[in-house]
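$ ./design --mode recover --in tokens.txt
reading tokens...
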């Protein structure tokens, strides 16, 4: 279940973000804004319960989210995506998964994971701006599923068709959202046209 989230504001931000002249400070701000713009679509089908609701004038009925939301940024680049989600869902809990893609094998190498003890019963949203081969996304989803998560979804900024297919094969029931679906991967596993290395651009960890 893959969905690109289309909106003129997202398109404009993403076009400016892709440009190599967009430095780290501006890059972080633009990723944050795109993340916020994606939140309504990513959360559109969350379950709600009808509850009694008191106003200053009378008792009426309202709706509350049925399940608690858990945001899971994949370190490092997922951190850049997290703030825009937290801006609109400030009550969400945050778990972290550390995965580093091996530049030679392109396989994800896990180095950290911290989450609430019980994941069952939460709506879990995994955040990683780049969905390239899909190895990192599938590893993150598998670890969360193994830890008990029973409601998972995945959000990215830029996705490659190869990565979308990888998630759909491993987790056909998981909704996958992206602000853009790009063309393909190059021989080094980078997304084309893409935006380069998202972690390096967010945190300035490249040679000037
Ligand atoms: C990037 C990106 C994803 C992964 C995507 O992270 O943030 O996690 O690569 O590639 P894949 O779909 O082929 O697995 P990277 O491992 O470079 O780490 P970083 O965020 O620390 O830079
Ligand atoms: N990770 C990135 O940061 N960018 C890509 O294009 C692929 C993986």
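writing sequence...
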């Amino acid at each position: 279940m893959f969905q690109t989230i289309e909106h003129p504001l997202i398109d404009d931000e993403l076009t400016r973000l892709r440009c190599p002249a967009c430095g780290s400070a501006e890059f972080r701000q633009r990723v944050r804004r795109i993340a916020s713009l994606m939140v309504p679509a990513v959360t559109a089908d969350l379950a709600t319960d009808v509850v009694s609701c008191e106003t200053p004038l009378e008792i009426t009925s309202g709706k509350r989210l049925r399940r608690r939301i858990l945001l899971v940024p994949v370190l490092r680049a997922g951190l850049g995506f997290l703030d825009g989600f937290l801006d609109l869902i400030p009550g969400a809990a945050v778990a972290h998964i550390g995965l580093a893609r091996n530049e030679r094998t392109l396989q994800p190498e896990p180095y950290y994971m911290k989450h609430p003890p019980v994941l069952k019963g939460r709506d879990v949203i995994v955040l990683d701006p780049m969905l390239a081969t899909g190895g990192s996304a599938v590893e993150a989803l598998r670890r969360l599923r193994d830890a008990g998560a029973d409601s998972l979804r995945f959000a990215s900024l830029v996705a490659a068709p190869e990565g979308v297919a990888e998630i759909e094969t491993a987790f056909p029931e998981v909704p996958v959202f992206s602000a853009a679906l790009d063309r393909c991967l190059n021989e080094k596993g980078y997304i084309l046209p893409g935006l380069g290395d998202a972690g390096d651009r967010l945190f300035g960890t490249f040679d000037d």
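exit 0
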